[in-house]
Write a structure and sequence with these properties.
Peptide Deformylase; 18% helix; binds nickel (II) ion
């Protein structure tokens, strides 16, 4: 495993629509492992492949925030099939370090995707997981949370320094 370089907002790779994955090759398995390592290293709760410069529909999420009980979710070709409710709260992104802004997202989503063995999976997400799922799937279509921010994007202040970034 290896840390990958996280692309920062302004990099054109973050505005591209990613391609579907047809087959999980050894190279893609390695990419997924590297994405987890890079996400955990950055204290993020999610990371999408374009954030490490790869234009494929792959994202990893772990909202558990407990090192001793990780709950990794690997998403290949994910799509949102149901959205319900609404939540408004601060959101951050590893591609815009140290910043945060208020975004409204669905409170509940259902996502269909494939896992690293290309087996179909269905993920139900509430609250933070719903937010992370929407945020990462947006990345795969070249969108970032700043496009949806209500009000100002602000610096994450000292009290919030351990806030999650996606
Ligand atoms: Ni992000």
């Amino acid at each position: 495993m290896a840390l990958r370089t996280i692309r920062i907002a302004g990099d054109p790779v973050l505005t591209k629509v990613c391609r579907e994955v047809k087959e999980v090759t050894p190279r893609i398995r390695e990419l997924i492992q590297d994405m987890y390592e890079t996400m955990y290293h950055g204290n993020g709760v999610g990371l999408a492949a374009p954030q490490v410069g790869i234009l494929k529909r792959i994202a990893v999420i772990d909202v558990s925030m407990e090192e001793d009980n990780p709950q990794p979710i690997t998403l290949i070709n994910p799509r949102v099939v149901l959205m319900e409710g609404e939540q408004t709260g601060d959101e951050g992104c590893l591609s815009l370090p140290g910043k945060s802004g208020k975004v409204t997202r669905p409170m509940h989503v259902v996502v269909e995707a494939f896992d690293e063995n290309m087996e179909p999976i269905r993920i139900e997400g509430e609250a933070l997981l719903a937010r992370a799922l929407c945020h990462e799937i947006d990345h795969l279509d070249g969108h970032m949370y700043m496009e949806k921010v209500e009000g100002e994007i602000h610096d994450v202040n000292y009290d919030e320094e351990d806030e999650d970034e996606e």
